Amino acid sequence: MSRKLELIVLAILLIFVAQFIYVSSTTNAEYGGADDKPEGVIEEITGGTYKPIAEPIWEPPSGEIESLLFALQAAIGAGVIGYFFGYYRAKKNYENKLGYKGKSKPEGDRHSL
Amino acid sequence: MAHLLYLLYLLLYIFIIYGDPMHIMEGFLPAIWCIVWFAISIPVIALGIYKLNKLVKEKREILPLLAVAGAFIFVLSSLKMPSVTGSCSHPTGTGIGAIMFGPAITAVLSTIVLIYQALFLAHGGLTTLGANVFSMGIVGPVVSYLIYKAGMKAKLNFYLVVFLAATFGDWATYIVTSTELALAFPAGNVLSVAGFLSSFSKFVAIFAITQVPLAIIEGAVSALLFKYVIEVKSDILVEMKVLEDSVVRKIRGLSA
Fold first, then answer.
1. Where exactly are the structural domains of chain A?
2. Which of A12, A35, A53 is facing B85, going by the closest CB pair?
3. Residue B139: CB partners within 8 Å, gap ≥ 6?
4. Domain ranges of chain B
5. Touching check for B58 and chain A: CB below 8 Å?
6. Entry pTM
7. Distances (CA, A) of A76 to A61, A72, B72, B73, B234
8. Which of A51, A70, A100, A101 would you mutate first to test chain B, the one with the most B CBs within 10 A?
9. What CATH code would you report for B24-255?
10. Residue A30 main-chain phi, psi, to 5 deg
11. What span, in angstroms and rounded, lies between the C-alpha atoms of A111 and B12?
């Protein structure tokens, strides 16, 4: 099985990581998006007159709680993806091994979609 | 007045720390624009729910793929990544859903993620939900979908097409977000072409550089996920007319 695509993706990720290491060690970027450029664009445009019309109903009380909830979001997603890939992989594997291939083909409904 | 300015500064600071190019923070659109974007987004979400019900009724076997497409949005939009500009943003993950199920159903999946983030993470907001669904759930996926269809018609390499579709879908999302902000906050406080363009260039300048590397990563990871879907479940993609049989055989031939 060709692993060409994996290598390309890995290369892209490595370039990204290298960029991060370089930028974070040569500058004192805060990585919050809090650099001078975006700060106060709305304020600058409106002359500081804009007042938000609503505030979040609930905010994570701390950065830790926020990262907990973000991690939870990623974990739920990763779990679902892993479950179904594992399911399909095993199914395909056993179908091939036990020769169920012909029987398990779903009936295609050509009229839908 | 000084207190108010301080509060505004604080909110902007929070906006910049926790907010990001993708989602417009709660309250950061005037009411009229909230209504406009809801008015545009709600019919698309309704169409998406209708299509989703129809699809699930006719083909129950697509449910796992639907879950994977939704979960991919969940994972990618939770990954705040550092970018070249020294600020953070996150990908959208909507390309996969758009290619497999079309933009309307992807709008529904995105809405679920956006509501989760608005309620539990103070990320995005309920008043700005319409605007955020429009950028992330509608225009991004539409762009991905069109690029995918055009690319496949032109018989380009399948993974390259997925990469381009997901990457440009991501970029389109931030361009729309900048547009939404510029429409709400045109320079000179009066909506004119010049005022809009002036504000637009400011918002795009902030978000453009940050989002470029993230969009590329999103494209690459989306292509990789598609590879694995084809490996285990290509028949369903052919059945849904996402891929032609000949393309699957060609990919298999190359990677087998």
1. 63-102
2. A35
3. B172, B173, B176
4. 24-255
5. yes
6. 0.85
7. 22, 6, 10, 11, 25
8. A70
9. 1.10.1760.20
10. -90, -15
11. 52
Strand ranges (E), chain B? 81-82, 88-89
> Contact B131/B29 with Cβ under 8 angstroms?
yes
Place of tokens 């974990």: A75
Structure tokens at A67: 């990262």
Tell me, what's the pLDDT at B247?
Answer: 86
Q: How far apart are CA A76 and CA B63, in angstroms?
A: 16
Residue (of A88, A32, A61) closest to B87 by Cα position:
A32
Provide, as residue numbers in chain A, all residues whose Cβ is less than 8 Å from the Cβ of B54.
Answer: 112
Q: Which two tokens stand for residue B148?
A: 């995918």
> Which tens digits make up the pLDDT trace of B34-84?
999 999 999 999 999 999 999 999 998 899 999 999 999 999 988 888 887
Angstrom CA distances, B103 to A5, A52, A91, A92, stand at: 26, 31, 30, 30
* ipTM exceeds 0.85, yes or no: no
Residues paired with B82 in a beta bridge: B88
With residues binned 3-state (H G I as helix, E B as strand, rest as coil), the percentages for chain B, rounded to 5, are: 80, 0, 20
Which three-class secondary structure state does DSSP give residue B42? helix
Which tokens hold the place of B231? Answer: 């490996």
Q: Can you tell me whether residue B89 is helix, strand or coil? A: strand
Q: Which residue has the tokens 């690459």?
A: B220
